[in-house]
Amino acid sequence: MPKRDPRVDAYVAKSPDFAKPILTRVRKIVHAACPEVEETLKWGAPTFMYNGILCGMASFKNHCHFILWKGRLVLDKNGQPMSAANGHFRNLKTVSDLPSDRVLTGYIKDAKKLNESGAKVPKSPPKKRAPIALPALLKRALSSNAKASAAFDSFSPSHKREYVEWITEAKTEETRQRRVDTAIEWMAEGKPRNWKYMKR
């Protein structure tokens, strides 16, 4: 007998009317495809557990989501990665936005096998951030203070970005200049932008 969580019943009951049939259908198919599944709430939304997280669903004001936890590894009938982005079915507004029962059942069974095998989703490579563009005002100030310039050069990219963003977010030229002056003073002392909040 599948383990059902009364909190999931309450979640579905409180969901908007358009969402109830979507959530009910997903729940029914998950239990049929993986009879051993256990329900719980994670991050405030219904989550289905089988050897770890199998999948989850959530309703919002105007749409629902259905997410296969290892969706990136689940393949469709043609052996191609799932058409939904990384196994996430987002912006569902009607039951017809979901795949057919047969296709959805296949996805869940594939996800079940992945959990049984202990498969891990490969981490996405970190996104390359654009190089930090120094505002002209800061560039000039650094060029006239060797100590501050050396400290800035030694900072991590995140520390450099904190200073640049703090200066560029200033609304007026006067505030911008005041922040540059303060930044140069702190940098000359080897301090990152948020030094006040760092553990000592």
Structure report:
With 200 residues, the protein is α+β, with helices and mostly antiparallel strands. It folds into 2 domains: 6-117, Aspartate Aminotransferase, domain 1; 136-194, no CATH class. 43% of the residues lie in helices and 14% in strands. It contains 7 helices and 5 strands; from the N terminus they run H-H-E-E-E-E-E-H-H-H-H-H. It has helices at 6-14, 19-33, 101-117, 136-143, 146-154, 157-168, 173-188; strands at residues 38-42, 45-49, 53-59, 64-68, 88-92. A 5-stranded antiparallel beta sheet has the order 1-2-3-4-5. Helix 4 (136-143) packs parallel to helix 7 (173-188) and helix 6 runs antiparallel to helix 7 (173-188). It is elongated and about 70 Å long. The model has no long low-confidence stretch (mean pLDDT 88).
Concise summary:
With 200 residues, this protein is of the alpha+beta class. The chain contains 7 helices and 5 strands.
